[in-house]
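Annex B.
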Amino acid sequence: MGVSNNIIAILNFIALLCSIPIIASGIWLASKPDSECIRLVRWPVIILGVLILLVSLAGFVGAYWNHQCLLAAYLFSMATLIVLLLALLVFSFVVTHNDGEYDVPGRGYKEYRLAGFSDWLRHYVGDDGHWVRIRACLSQSDVCGKLARDDAYFTADQFFRTVLSPIQSGCCKPPTVCGYTYVNPTVWVSPANVAADPDCYAWSNDQTQLCYGCNSCKAGTIGNLRGEWRKANIVLIIAAVALIWVYIIGCSALKNAQTEELFRRYKQGFA
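Tetraspanin-2: predicted structure tokens.
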């Protein structure tokens, strides 16, 4: 095996290693409570990472055994996967650019409004057909139950200083504007005059209902999803940059390998 092929094999091994954090990011996203309910984010990153791993493995085999057709297929496939990865990054940045969170005076947690998020996320999560399934999934999860167990003996002031996840803030308690009185994290007493906000009427102390029917719950779910995607994007950007460099160097090494092969044949012709 020539020097150029050795370089290509090493580069493909690096590309194979780059696929591991991509797959890990997809698994991390899929393991989140909101991701289990929003099927959209379960598989794209994992599938892309697995494909990069398989293509890198094929490129490694092609370089090791000097199989030019396999190397050419590797270059085409890897270019396609890098474009798909970049497209996924651009898409995720566009749809997660807007942020619907806002500060609440005297509260350690933030609250969320649907209008602050991108149209695409609002449509996908807030669509009635999708939300019926997502709401049922969230109500069966342990997101609010864990909050009620862990913080059950908090005083109101202690709870108000607590930092909540977007889902906990939007789905497990009524919005602050409603003026409900705190009993425990998932039980609140209705005021004499309820604010006109529809979410104030949607709140229920029934632990299977809570604020799962509220717009604030939709907004909190999107807020959770947005935060997780933006964290995963950091890993994906690093992996994409590494893959692009590996691909560029690999193309150069393959060109050198082809030149070596032509030179070898040329010498054999005069032997």
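Residues 215-269 form the longest helix (55 residues). The longest strand covers residues 181-184. Further annotation is deferred to the next reporting cycle.
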